[in-house]
Structure formats: structure tokens, C-alpha cells
Amino acid sequence: MSQKNNGSRKILKILLIPLKLIYSLLKAVLKTIFLDLFRNIKKETIYAFNKEEKMRIKQELETKKFIDIVNERLKRIERLVYSIFHDPDYIKRDKGKSDLKDLEKEAK
Predict the structure, then answer these.
(1) How many Å apart are CA 97 and CA 104, to the nearest integer?
(2) Which residue of 17, 20, 43, 96 is surrounded by the most CB atoms within 10 Å?
């Protein structure tokens, strides 16, 4: 009798897997639609009527983009400086050549 219960429990567990998956997907979609919808509507109304808030957010995005560009350039320069002292063959490899070309384009 215990074998019969174990077999039915395994079947029940297997049948519950797709139901749990469907439940979690449906829950995620509904949360996204209803909760994020109200947040987005609130943000859009604030941005539409408050120009200072809109400009502040725009400035933050531009600053973040600029910082990312500067960090990328800094990493290239660090690789080249490191290669000068520790790995002189780096500039002769493809990666070193591409770094030099990118820095030349950015410097012009």
C-alpha cells in the first residue's frame, strides 16, 4: 500500500510543477501590469507638470553616461600604461592595436 501512495505522490508532484510555473508567470505579469502601471502614470504626470524634475533626471542620465565613457577610457589607458612597464608586446597584439586606435579617435 505504501508503494501505491508513493507512486501517487510522485504523480501529484509532477502535475504540480506546471501549475506552479503557470501561477508564478501569471503573478509576475499581473504585478508588472498593475503595480508598475500606477507608478509609471505617477512619474509621467510629475514629469509633465514639473520641468525642474524632468531636467534633473535628464542631467542625472547625461552624467551617468559621461561617467561610463570616462571609466571606459580610463581602463584603456591603464591597460596601455601597464603594458609599457610589464608587457611590451601588448601594443603589438590585436587588443593593444585596437586600444591605440580607439584612443587616437577619441583624442582627435
Answers:
(1) 11
(2) 96
How much of the chain, in percent, has pLDDT values that exceed 90?
Answer: 12
Give per-residue burial for 61-90: e unless 16+ CB within 10 Å, then b: eeeeeeeeeeeeeeebeeeeeebeeeeeeb
The model's pTM: 0.47
Exposure of 91 by Cβ count < 10 A (0-12 exposed, 13-18 middle, 19+ buried)?
middle
Q: Which three cell numbers stand for residue 16?
A: 504540480
Nearest to 91 by CA among 108, 74, 76: 76
Which grid coordinates belong to 39? 507608478
Give the confidence band of 17 by pLDDT, cuts at 50, 70, 90: confident
Neighbours of 8 (CB within 10 A): 10
For 86, left (φ over 0), alpha (ψ -120 to 50), or beta? alpha
